[in-house]
Amino acid sequence: MEQLGVEPEEEAGRDEEEDAAQAMERAEAGEAGVVPEGSSSSRVIVHVDLDCFYAQVEMISNPELKGKPLGVQQKYLVVTCNYEARKLGVKKLMNVRDAKEKCPQLVLVNGEDLTRYREMSYKVTELLEEFSPIVERLGFDENFVDLTEMVEKRLQQHQSDELSALTVSGHVYNNQCIGYKTAKRLEALGISSVHDLQTFSPKILEKELGISVAQRIQKLSFGEDTSPVTPSGPPQSFSEEDSFKKCSSEVEAKNKIEELLASLLNRVCQDGRKPHTIRLTIRRYSSENHCSRESRQCPIPSHVIQKLGTGNCDVMTPMVDILMKLFRNMVNVKMPFHLTLLSVCLCNLKVLNTAKKGTIDYYLTPSLSTTSRSGKRSFKMKDSHMED
DNA sequence: TGGGGTTAT
DNA sequence: ATAACCC
């Protein structure tokens, strides 16, 4: 086996940060899996998966909720719930009506505003980054930490003062992942179990799914995942969306877009980097094909970018104007329309910098090097003079 | 089915 | 710009 993974158990009713810290302590204590014998390819990766994260954040915010069956509601869905609620039959992504029917005592809090969840989520990631900078986020509540280097260092120390080999506990991370679309295609090939996939002809699978997907999922079917833990760093995009039963007029749309944009501007202001692209996404009402969205994006004019984060200058107006142009590009407002979702995204984030052309800093600045992978702690920016 | 995110094409 | 994936 190339890789061992560990999924630390979380404990109910604890502060999320404590959970993460305890998991790491256990990993440090040697409970994480490691293969000492020479194989240089073996890695130690801890998977920290927080259960019912939103519900836990809510219980920390309001301790009176602890001990009660609690669900977090977005629109008419209970997106997650605590263990008390689960015991009483509430499931993730359950309809509010079904949940109330199953569990009349269920306490519901609204979780449509993700601000506090997002903040707590990054606190957890930052905590894990103290152990190793190689932390990859998956959603708001999962982190993968590559502890290979840390463990190897400790192993060397250990070997010098003790003659024993370390005993290893921990289990192979069980990867049963296959997305919806791929699952359908596999089923059409008669593949419905992990075993089916393990024994299926690699050649035919490659023809069917393309070499990249085919080889990857077949390795996964044997529990082998050699993909690196890629440090997530700061987010690549900021977006806010709102879904609703019906939006059928331009003014209505504009009001909602203004709301979304206002929150986004706060977030982007706190981040410090500047978005160079803006995108508007819509979902049209339709009986079928509910999943499909359409979007339009465009560069943010540089004079608008400069005003970002300066607070007093009105950046809303020009940006709303841009968004409404994108809107009318997608929606013929002279015809009746029915939208069920609007989303605004600010992306293509660039670090502002003091680097002048021709200096060492200029060439060392990630946002100016061609690939621009928004450098995080590797390059801390100082004062923000601008010369974009 | 929410309100986010990422990468590949 | 979209599609597919993740939570």
From TrEMBL:
Start and end residues of each UmuC domain: 45-154
Region: Disordered, residue numbers: 1-38
Keywords per UniProt: DNA synthesis, Transferase
Gene Ontology terms for molecular function: damaged DNA binding; DNA-directed DNA polymerase activity
Record keyword Transferase present: yes
GO BP terms, alphabetized: DNA repair; translesion synthesis
Biased composition (Acidic residues): 7-20
Name under which the protein is recorded: DNA polymerase iota
